[in-house]
Structures are given as C-alpha cells and as structure tokens.
Amino acid sequence: MAIRMIVLLIFILFGSQSRSSPAKTAASTATVKSNSTINWKKRLANYKKDMLETSKYQDVESMKSSYLELAKRAGGLTVNDEVFLNQVIQQGHKSEIEQRQMCGDQKQKNFSSRFGVSRNQGRLGWCFAHALADQLSYETGKNISASDLALTHYQDAHGLLEQIQAPNKKTTEFSAGSSYTTFLAAREKGLCLENNFKSNDNGTGNYKSLLNRIQGMQMPLLPIRNCSQESQLVQQIFPTLEIPEIKYAYFTSLRTNYIRSLADQACNPRIRIENKKMNYFPGQIPQDSAMILRQLNEGLNKNKPVLINLNGNVLRNSYDQSTKANHDTLIIGRRFNEKTKICEYQIRNSWGPSCEQYDSEFVCEKGKGHLWIPINYLQRSMSAASYIE
After folding, report:
1. Is 363 helix (H, G, I), strand (E, B) or coil?
2. Structure confidence at residue 209 (pLDDT)
3. What is d(CA 149, CA 216) in angstroms, rounded to the nearest whole number?
4. Phi and psi at residue 371, in whole multiples of 5°?
5. Could you read off the pLDDT of 182-216 as tens digits, one per residue?
6. C-alpha dist (Å) from residue 281 to 23, 151, 288, 306
7. What is d(CA 180, CA 178) in angstroms, rounded to the nearest whole number?
8. CA of residue 349 relative to chain centroid, distance
9. Tens digit of pLDDT for each residue in 86-112?
10. Which CATH number is correct for 107-114+277-388, 3.30.300, 3.30.1340, 3.90.70, 1.10.287?
11. What is the pLDDT, as a whole number, of residue 158?
12. 333 - beta bridge partners?
C-alpha cells in the first residue's frame, strides 16, 4: 500500500510535466506544418527561377506537372502562380520557334570533317594558341603550329620562360594569353606549319618538360662533336631541322631566346596572312551575352568556325559558375536537337580526344573529342567571340 502511494505521488509530481496538454500538442503540430509550408514555398520559388531561365531557350510544358505539385504542397495554387505559369509556357513556346529558326535544318552547320583529332595543350596555358591554330588551319588549308603562335604572343623572352620553366608552379589548362592580340602579331610575322614546329602534347604530359630541357640545354663547344644526342632532343619538336641548323641557332642566340631561334630556322619561309582580318567582339557586362551569341551565329552563317572565350569550368561541370576560368576554344558546328528541342553548338577543344573529362550531360564524339553543348550553358558562359575573314 505504501509503495502504491509513493508511485502515485511521483506520477502526480512529475508525470504531468512529461505529458503535453492538448493545446500544446496542437501548437506544436501547427508549427511543424507551418515550417513545412515555408520549405515548400522556398522550393517553389527556386523552381520558378529554373522554369523562367529554361523558358528563354526551350519549351517548358514538361515542367508544368512538377510546378503544380510544388504549388499544392506550398499551400495551394495562387492567382499569381497561375499567371506566372501561363507566361513561362507562352515564353517557352516562343523560344522553341526561335531556336528552330536559329539552327534548324536550313541553319545547321558542321565543320568537323575539316579537322582531325582534338589538339592537346598539355600542361601549358596555351588554349588561346591552340584554338587560334585550328581557326587559321581552317582558313589556310594547312596544319598550323600552335606553339609557334604562343611564341608569337610572348614577344619577350621573359613571358615564354615563365610558362615553360616553372615546374613547381601549378599548371592550368586555362588561358595564359589573348587570341586576338596573337592574331594581330601573327598577321605581321606569318605562320608556321605543325610539321615544322610540333605543339601537340599527345596526352603524355611531357611537352612542357621537353621545351624546358631544350631551353636549358648546353651544346658542346668542341667542333669535333656532332651533337647528335642534343639534336635528337631538339628534333622531337623541330623534326625538319638538321644538326648544322640546330648548332647555328644555339651559338648565334642568347640562351633565353634559343627556342625562338630554333623556330625561326624551322619556320622559314613563313605562311603569310596579311589579307586576313578578325571580327572580334569582347563582352564587357553580362548583358552582352546576347550580342556575343549574335556574333557567334553570324560567323557560323558565313561558314566560319568561331573562336570563343568562356568559363572553362562549365565543360567539366555544367552547373559550375562559381569561378571564372578563362578558356579559349573553337565552335565548329550548330544543330537543333529534336529530343531536347534546343540549339546545340559543337566545340573543338584542346584537351585531347578523351571524352571522360567532360560533363556527362554533354554529347562527346569519341575518337575526336568534339563536344556538343546546349545553348543555355554556352550563352551564360561566353565572354567573347571572333571569326576570321
């Protein structure tokens, strides 16, 4: 009896504190429901942004059911929600028509057959030179050396040495130069054939170190040595040079200009392009993206591949807009994708033929490494476009 009284006393003192009153329970449930509604409203707001952005490029009918479900969970479809939905659907229909007009059957372009396997810039930030070399190869009908264009850009020895003699410096595939200023300099100087001045890394990662070894090479002074070992090293990049030409370049140049002297020997005579001009449009503000796209399509309509500058991170992660990584690459095609109902542009990049390095959302041509990228990803990433006439 005493034990039952003690248990009853404990229940009276503490049990009532652990049990919520009906009013408290209802308030707690209302709070959870309110928080849930707020979360759904946030998700709806984000979905609206996605729909609005998508409607600028393609039809959004397929997004309608998800939008209605989110609105329902967010507290019900409001008048404003209905107005928004009707507006973006109309905009999406209009965008699909515009996309077909821009790159439908009559406007499709594909210059892929004019190019071989994608170039590989290796560990050097010479994307500007590789893209320009491809562009000039198309114009001249000859395979132009990208490394020679890079040397043309670095008119002083310091700039070149900084690129090839920094083994401990973090290397990048992104741009370390300007394709436009390089074109202007090359128009004065002339071009070199790839067969005379090799520039492709071929995926080995050794091209930069090979340049560095040649630049730092010590040639024997004794004339009785034929320098065959040293010459073999040079001929990996300058295959047409003979031993006397290699020795002449070595003994008549400053050590900082040795590679440039070799190039002058290997590239003589140069290919002249004084009659060529580059139509170049650099964007200054985000609103310029429409004008950059217009420049891109103008070049393609003239059957010209178009060199663009874009945020290179997008090629690896289509949603990555966090940091701006300047990268030059070449647009060589345009088509309308009947499945996605949107324009796509074909990129010829300078990261070699592998498709594994690109976002799986993009269609990559195995063997060549050419990449199809939808207009919405491309337009928001571009900052310049140029073509040669």
Report:
1. strand
2. 85
3. 21
4. -125, 130
5. 999 999 999 999 999 999 876 566 888 888 888 88
6. 67, 24, 10, 11
7. 5
8. 8
9. 999 999 999 999 999 999 888 899 999
10. 3.90.70
11. 58
12. 110, 346
In b/e form, how buried is each residue of 205-232, taking b as 16+ CB within 10 angstroms? eebbebbbebbebeeeeeeeeebeebbe
DSSP letter for each residue of 143-157: -B-HHHHHHHH--SH
**What's the pTM value of the predicted model, to 2 decimals?**
0.83
CA distance 227 to 231: 6
Which two tokens mark 385? Answer: 């476009």
**Structure-token match 């207009």, residue found:** 375
- Distance between CA atoms of 195 and 205, rounded to whole angstroms? 20
* HSE-up of residue 301 (Cα within 13 Å, Cβ side): 10
Would you mind telling me the total number of residues written for the chain in this entry? 389
Would you list the domain boundaries of the chain?
Answer: 25-101, 107-114+277-388, 143-266
- In the block, which residue shows the tokens 């560990």? 123
What span, in angstroms and rounded, lies between the C-alpha atoms of 350 and 154?
19
* Per-residue DSSP letter, 287: G
Rounded to the nearest integer, the mean pLDDT of the chain is: 84
